[in-house]
Amino acid sequence: SFSQNRITLDIAKARDTINKNIYGHFAEHLGHCIYDGIYVGADNQKIPNRNGIRLDIVEALKKLKTPVLRWPGGCFADTYHWKDAIGPREKRKAIENFTWGGVREDNSFGTHEFLELCEMINAEPYLAINMGSGTVQEAMEWVQYVNHPNGTSHLTDLRQQNGRSKPWNVKYWGIGNESWDCGGNMTAAYYVNEYKKYATLATSYNNSEGLYRIAVGPGTEDYSWTETVMREVPLKRLEGLSIHHYSVINWSAKGSATGFSEDEYFSTMEQAWRMERMVKKNSEVMDKYDPSKKVGLVVDEWGGWYEVEKGTNPAFLYQQNSMRDAMIAGLTLNIFNNHCDRVRMANLAQTVNVLQSVVLTKEEKLVLTPTYHVMEMYNVHQDALLLPLTISSSNYELNGKKIQAVSASASKDRNGAIHISLVNMDAGKAQEISIDLGSAAVKTVSGRILQSAQLQDHNSFENPEKVKPAEFRKAALKGKELSVNLPAFSVVVLELK
Ligand code: AHR
Questions:
Q1: Which residues form the Alpha-L-arabinofuranosidase C-terminal domain (predicted)?
Q2: Which atom of ligand 1 is nearest to 74's Cα?
Q3: CB within 8 Å of 407: residues ≥ 6 apart
C-alpha cells in the first residue's frame, strides 16, 4: 500500500551552507578502533600499511570525503597524556586503558601517527584535550607542540627531533569530554570555570591563531548545562559547543544489533528523531546569548548503540551494522543539513569496529557497512547551499505509537546540481512523495538507493556486499513536479540537473 506525502522546496530562501564537517567521524582508543583497526603496527607484513596505518581504511575514508576526524576520545581523552606517545616507539610509555577494558596500550599510535592519518585521508584533525586528569600546562604544550613555528620553544625543537618540522596547524580543539560524567563528574558551574582557564591559556590571549575551541555541552536533554556555558563563557573564548546523542532503546537493555524486532526498530527510530528536538532546543538557548550564531553546535558523538556482538569483549563496544543503522544515518544527516545555520560539525561514533562504524575489520578483511554507504551517498551535500524545504509526511505507526515516516533535505552544489536525500522510516509501507521544485530549472533526474530485503540485513566478512547502493529509477519529472516512490525502509539520494 502507498501513502501520500508532499515536499516543497523554497529556493528563494536558500542562504546557509551545509558545512562539510557535518560529515565528520570520531576515532577513540577503544576496542579495535585504533589498535588492530586503523593501526596495525609498523612491522605488519600481512596487512598493507604505511607506518602502521592500514591502507584499505585510508582508501575507504578518502572515498567517503571524510572532512574531519576527532581523536583520541571520548572518555579516553580525559585520561590521555600526549607526551607518553611521541618520540621513538621503543621508548614510549605503555599505559593501561582503564576506561575501556583495562587493556595495555604501548602508545605506538600517538600525535604524529594520528596527524599523519589525517593528512593521508585529507581530513582536518580535531583533538580532544584532557581536562579531567590533565593540566592546563599540558594542554598549552600540546597546542605549541603541534601548531607553533619552529624555533619558538623546546617543544617545537622536540617536534623537529621527532621527525616533523612543519607545524600541523590543528584548528579544532575540544576542551574536556562529557565532563558531567566520565570527564570528571562536574557541575556546569564548575566546568565553565575550568573551561575558561583552558580556553584562555592554551591559546594566545586574543587567540590570534584562530583556534576553534569546543566546550562540553549536554549529553541528555539538560538544556540548563547549555544555558550555563552560553551565559558564563565570553563569546570571544568560545567557537563551538558539543552535544552527544546516541539512539539507544534502553541503557540497561540495548538489544541485539542484528537480531531485533520491528518494535525495537521503531524505538530506535524514535530515539533517532530526538536529535531534531535536541538540536532545536540547544539552538534556542544559543540564540539567546549568541544571536549572530558565531558559536557552532558540534554534535561530536552520535549513532546507534546496541549490545556487543556475542563472544566479544563487552568493553570494546563492537557491534554489527544493519539497514536500521542506515536509517539512523539518513535521518540524522537530514536533521543536521536542515539545521546547518547552527550545526557546524558532527562526528559519527565511531569510525572503525566501535558502535555505529563505517568500516569493520577482521584480520586482513574489511567490510563497508550500510552506514558507510549512506555517508558516501550523502557526501554530495558537503559545502553545498541548503535548500530549505517544508514537508508534510504520513506517519509510521506501530502498536499505537507513531513517528513521522519521511525525512528529507536538499542542497545545491557549486555546479548547480540539486541533491535531495530522502528516508522512509516505515518498515512496511512504500511512500508516494510529490516534490514541488518551485523555481528550480531542472531537466533530468537520476538517483541512488540503499535498500535490502530485511531490516536486519548487514554486510558480513562472508558476504560483504549484501547491502550496497543501486541505481534508483522510481523518480519521474513532470514539469516542476517530481514524483517519487520510496520503498519501505530505504534511503535515496536524487540528483537533479
Ligand atoms: O563513544 C563511546 C563513548 O560514549 C565515549 O567515549 C563517550 O564520550 C560516550 O559516553
A1: 300-490
A2: 6
A3: 330, 331, 334, 335, 391, 393, 422, 423, 425
pLDDT in tens, 151-186: 999 999 999 999 999 999 999 999 999 999 999 999
Distance of alpha carbon 197 from alpha carbon 457, whole angstroms: 49
Distance CA 23, CA 64 (A): 9
> Fold for domain 2-9+388-496?
Immunoglobulin-like (2.60.40)
User: Nearest C-alpha to atom 8 of ligand 1 is from which residue?
Assistant: 74
CATH class of the structural domain 19-383: alpha beta
How far is it, in rounded angstroms, from Cα 139 to Cα 137? 5
d(CA 219, CA 233): 19
By most ligand atoms within 8 Å of CB, the mutation choice from 298, 301, 353, 355 for ligand 1 is 301
Q: Are 89 and 79 in contact, with CB atoms under 8 Å apart? A: no
Residues 6+ apart with CB under 8 A from 192: 215, 228, 229, 232, 233
Instruction: Give the amino acid at 90.
Output: E
Q: How far apart are CA 228 and CA 236, in angstroms?
A: 16
- CA nearest neighbour of 164 among 105, 202, 110: 110
pLDDT at 441: 85
Within the chain, all domains assigned CATH 2.60.40.1180 are found at 2-9+388-496
Task: Kindly report the protein residue whose alpha carbon is nearest to atom 4 of ligand 1.
Answer: 74
Active site residues: 178, 301
Q: Are the beta carbons of 423 and 370 closer than 8 angstroms?
A: no
- pTM of the complete model: 0.97
For residue 482, report the phi and psi dihedrals to the nearest 5 degrees: -120, 125
CA distances from 278 to 244, 259, 275, 332, 339 (A): 9, 29, 5, 12, 11
The DSSP string of 125-187 is EEEEE--SSS-HHHHHHHHHHHHSPTTSSHHHHHHHHTT--S-----EEEE-SSTTTTTT---
Residue 444 backbone zone (phi > 0: left; psi -120 to 50: alpha; other: beta): beta
- Using the mean position of ligand 1's atoms as its centre, give its distance from the Cα of residue 488 in Å: 32
Cell numbers given for 182:
566520565
Mean pLDDT in residue range 38-50: 97
Q: Is the dihedral of CA 59, 64, 70, 72 positive or negative?
A: negative
